[in-house]
Amino acid sequence: MVNIGDGLFQIVSLIFLAGIFAVAYILIRSLISKQKSKPTDIVEQKLDRIINLLEKDKKE
């Protein structure tokens, strides 16, 4: 028969282990999303510049 303390220890240990995996997953996702956002920012800046140049040409 399993002691109540032993069962409680196992539940707490499993929750702790799941927490470690959850934190690792969240960190990896945040690092990946930061890397993806940089190229899109560069593309947006270039498109803004092109739009500004086209608007200047229309005015002239």
Compose a concise summary of this entry:
The chain is mainly alpha-helical and 60 residues long.
Shape: rod-shaped
Alpha plus pi helix count: 1
Distance between the termini: 89 Å
- Order of helical and strand elements: H
Fraction of residues in helix: over 70%
The major beta sheet can be summarized as: none
Please state the structural category.
mainly alpha
Strand count: 0
> DSSP strand (E) fraction?
under 5%
Mean pLDDT score? 87
Give me the Rg, rounded. Answer: 26 Å
Q: Segments where pLDDT lies below 50 for 5+ residues?
A: none
Keywords: Membrane, Transmembrane, Transmembrane helix
Transmembrane segments: 7-28
Protein name: DUF4083 family protein
Organism: Peribacillus psychrosaccharolyticus (Bacillus psychrosaccharolyticus)
Explain what the structure shows.
This protein is mainly alpha-helical and 60 residues long. Helix content is 93%, strand content 0%. It contains one helix and no strands. It has one helix at residues 4-59. The chain is rod-shaped. It starts with a helix and ends with a helix. InterPro entries: DUF4083 (IPR025143). The chain crosses the membrane at residues 7-28. This is DUF4083 family protein. Keywords: Membrane, Transmembrane, Transmembrane helix. It comes from Peribacillus psychrosaccharolyticus.
